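Page 47, continued from p. 46.
Same chain as before, 240 aa.
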Amino acid sequence: MIDWLRRPPLEPEIELGGKRVPIVLKRLGNARRLTLRLAPDGSAVRVTLPAWAEGREAIAFAHTRAEWLTDQLAKLPIRVALLPGGEVRYRGQMLRLAWDPAASRRPQLGDKALHIGGPQTGLETRLRRWLEAEALRLCEADMHDYCAAAGLQPVPVALSRAQRRWGSCSDRSRIRINWRLVQAPDHVRRSVVAHEVAHLVHFDHSPAFHTLLGQIFEGEIAAADRWLKENGRSLYAAFG
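Result:
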């Protein structure tokens, strides 16, 4: 028997860099081994395990990777507080947060600034709601573009708050897009929408899927994928 399985049961949390982080277990019927990930915002250690595996085994496995997890946590973007005079990211640009308590509570775009009023209490909540509304507006427009290019009828778009996935298409009649992509450059967000629209036709990553994606998306998929790989975690620096 592996030595670390002989030890007393461990708590479902782990200390990483002086911070206690919960260990969240997820069983998958098709999983063949234990897989370990740190949530993009560092809020949890996620362990996927086969149906036959024991929870204590998964928890012990996470503890054996504490050093690696600590390194991953250190690489995460520092949580940014959204305060008046600070910055908020929108469509690939950093906008100055111009707060005036006498102004409208609804954010208004200005020259390199986002103007917002109302009390400072609840400022972050109002900003998030505005960004989510903008994300839905933009993604719906993207979806119409790519459905037309693929010869498809438009489908409903919903926003996701997923911790790892940027988009999904689970039933071929609806797509979900991570709202945080409203912070990314337009070509990055649009590449994800195009990807999910292509899945409405090809529910796989076959050559036919990639051919269709290349036909309907106007930019370079590789460049958009590279941006997400290098900068995707930074989209979690604000709003928790």
